[in-house]
Every structure is written in C-alpha cells, then in structure tokens.
Design a protein that fits this description.
Elements (H helix, E strand, L loop, with lengths): L12 H26 L7 H29 L4 H10 L18 H17 L8 H5 L3 H21 L4
Helix pairs in contact: 1-2, 1-3, 2-4, 4-6
Length: 164
C-alpha cells in the first residue's frame, strides 16, 4: 500500500474506500466463513467457529484500519470525505464511538490524524495533503493542539463581534 500517484495527484475517496473494503473487510469475511466451515472438522459447532472467526476478524480490522487510513491520507485523500464515505459504507465506525476506539493506533497514527486535522483547520475546506516531514515530526500533536486552540479562540471572538 505504499504507492503514490504520479504528478502529485490525489486518490478519490471512493477508490480509497473501495480498496479499504477489499483489504480489510474481504479478509474478515474469509475468516468468519473459514471458521464456520472448518469448525465441524475439529468437532466444533459452525456457530462457534464463526464466532472465533469473527474475533480474529475484529483483530485484523483493528490493526488494518489505522494502516489503511495512514496510507489513504498519504495518497492525498480528503480526510473528512474519507471518514464520511467510510462510515456510510460500514468500513469504519462513527468518530468518537466506543467501537471506533477498538482501532489499534500507535503514535504514528495519532501524528497522521493530527496533521490531517491541522491541514484542514489551517486551510478551511481546501484540504492540502499533509507534508511528510510534518507527519514524522514529534511536535505535530503540540502544533495541532495549538492550531485547535487558536482557531477556537478566533471563532469565539468572531461570534462576539456585533453585526455578524
């Protein structure tokens, strides 16, 4: 999944989500089906085998979704559109939900999410793909938090201005 598009072009959210389904949900379905099909051969009920397959599938999903998201953002995909489309097609859970918290995220994933948020906040609705140096910077989280605070302060002052 390390490919970048030629000429600095970005990948469409639809194509990115389709690849996510193939690479994430495809193996999950195979694990559940294999669990159900192979269970009788080891004297286990198919329902129990499917449940074991679902647990293994959930582990796969939890590991692969953050990797897929990191790859998708590196392709220049708009993070808001990516999240919206992935939620609507049941690839990921809604942001902030208890099930979304089962994703296994490392520090690199938090930097990617912070850099994407920083880019969206800094440039409004015009998404600029995050700079790779920014994604690798240990200061990214601090910078993103500062940007959130400055933007919130700016918006609060604007809402208090008479005549708006």
């Amino acid at each position: 999944m390390e490919t970048n598009l030629p000429g600095g072009a970005s990948m469409s959210p639809a194509k990115t989500v389709l690849m996510g389904h193939a690479l994430i949900n495809g193996p999950v379905i195979v694990l559940v089906a294999l669990g159900a099909l192979l269970a009788p051969s080891i004297s286990i009920r198919p329902g129990i085998g499917a449940l074991v397959g679902a647990v293994l599938g959930w582990g796969w999903w939890s590991i692969m979704v953050p990797k897929w998201r990191r790859w998708a953002l590196a392709q220049g995909t708009d993070p808001n559109e990516l999240q919206r489309l992935a939620e609507r097609t049941f690839l990921v859970w809604k942001k902030g939900s208890a099930l979304e918290k089962t994703e296994f995220r490392g520090k690199a994933d938090e930097r990617v999410r912070a850099a994407a948020s920083l880019a969206v906040l800094s440039y409004g609705s015009h998404f600029l793909p995050p700079n790779k140096a920014l994604l690798q910077s240990p200061q990214t989280l601090v910078e993103a938090r500062m940007c959130f605070a400055m933007r919130a302060n700016h918006d609060m002052r604007r809402s208090r201005t008479p005549g708006r």
